[in-house]
Amino acid sequence: MAIQTRGFEGINVTPLIDVVMCLIIFFLIVGKLASDASAVRLPGSAVGRVPGEDGGRRPLVISMALAAAPGATPPVSWGGVMARVFVDGQSVSGPGELEGLLRERLGGSPAATEPGAMPAQRPVHLRADRDLPWDAVQPVLQACSKAGVLGVRLATERPR
Amino acid sequence: MSAAPAPSRRRRSGGYRRRSALHGSSLHFGPNMTPMVDVVMVILVFFMASAAFMGPEWFLKSLVPQKPPEGTGVAPASGPAALSLPPVQLEITLALDGATTRATGVGKTGVAIDDVLDALRAFAQDTPKDKIEVLIRPGPGVPYRDVVRIHEGCERLGLGRVGIATP
């Protein structure tokens, strides 16, 4: 009896700390992934393509979320519509800044070798919310056009 | 003097302790897998959960029309390429009518999106698909999802050269 009470020396907190650390790291990463840019509900489509290897080039992702979607970034007027635009997760304040960011980050030459072929620059993915009016998407595509982007891949949701 | 430590050494490495150590090593054979399995399980659950959040996505390839440089018009076709037929350019204009989107193009005016896609299908049956270029020209207020619907319809017909006009 005396040995048993001497053996009990408080609660063993090591597994508790393990579990809590796991939870903290989990929510940190989920919070990073589920940032403002991922509050986008993509339009659905029954057809589409899965991009190939792209020659090892990372796609440049432009996300467009509704102003009503949850997010910490203040929405900006795009073509008279309040929306949030992100380039690779970085918030953009207007079409001019978007064009500059695109020029800076596209890399490669925009010269197309043959019609329809993607140029040697990074592929551009446009993840725009399905409920956005065209007025908001149009300045984004216009900035792409000015920055020399020849093709954009419109992200859509695959039917499950 | 010299005989004194011998019995104790023999006892330390003697039968009882040695057998116990052997029993211990037979219980823990190889590296301890439990922490590794813990970590791998956490990573597995994390990626399963994040994949469920993300949702599957794929892409419609869209061309971005480029404005020709100032002062240059359309370059006159020359060389061997001029002998082949130029591509057929179709323009589909979208306009908002109340809450519904009306499409104009391919011989139709102010019809529903499905009707203009039907007309496009009939047109694409008689024309080589690589000779058709579709330009979607959405008007103000048209929902982005309707633009994607037209694009999807073109993709379904196998038309690879689809662009969206940016005025």
Largest interface: A-B, 49 and 40 residues
> Roughly what percent helix of chain A?
25-40%
Give the percentage of residues in beta strands of chain B. 15-25%
Order of helices and strands of chain A: HHEEEEHEHE
Structural class of chain B: alpha/beta
Kindly state the number of beta strands of chain A: 6
How many alpha or pi helices of chain B?
A: 5
How do the strands of the widest beta sheet of chain B line up side by side? 4-3-2-5-6
Largest sheet of chain A: 6 strands, mixed
Provide a concise account of the structure shown.
The complex is a heterodimer of chains A (160) and B (167). Chain A has helices at residues 2-7, 14-33, 95-106, 134-146, and strands at 60-66, 76-78, 81-87, 90-92, 124-128, 151-157. With 160 residues, chain A is of the alpha/beta class.
Give an account of the 3D structure.
The complex is a heterodimer of chains A (160) and B (167). The termini of chain A are far apart. In chain A, strands 1, 2, 3, 4, 5 and 6 form a 6-stranded mixed beta sheet that branches. In chain A, helix 3 (95-106) packs across helix 4. The mean pLDDT of chain A is 79. Chain A has 4 helices and 6 strands, in the order H-H-E-E-E-E-H-E-H-E. Chain A has 160 residues and is an alpha/beta fold. Chain A has helices at residues 2-7, 14-33, 95-106, 134-146, and strands spanning 60-66, 76-78, 81-87, 90-92, 124-128, 151-157. Chain B is an alpha/beta fold and 167 residues long. Helices cover 41% and strands 23% of the residues of chain B. Chain B contains 5 helices and 6 strands, in the order H-H-H-E-E-E-E-H-E-H-E. In chain B, strand 5, helix 5 (144-156) and strand 6 (161-164) form a beta-alpha-beta unit. The radius of gyration of chain B is 37 Å and the shape is elongated. Chain B starts with a helix and ends with a strand. The model of chain B is unreliable at 1-15 and 71-79 (pLDDT under 50). At the A-B interface, helix 2, strand 5, helix 4 and strand 6 of A face helix 3, strand 1 and helix 5 of B. Strand 6 of chain A pairs antiparallel with strand 1 (57-63) of chain B.
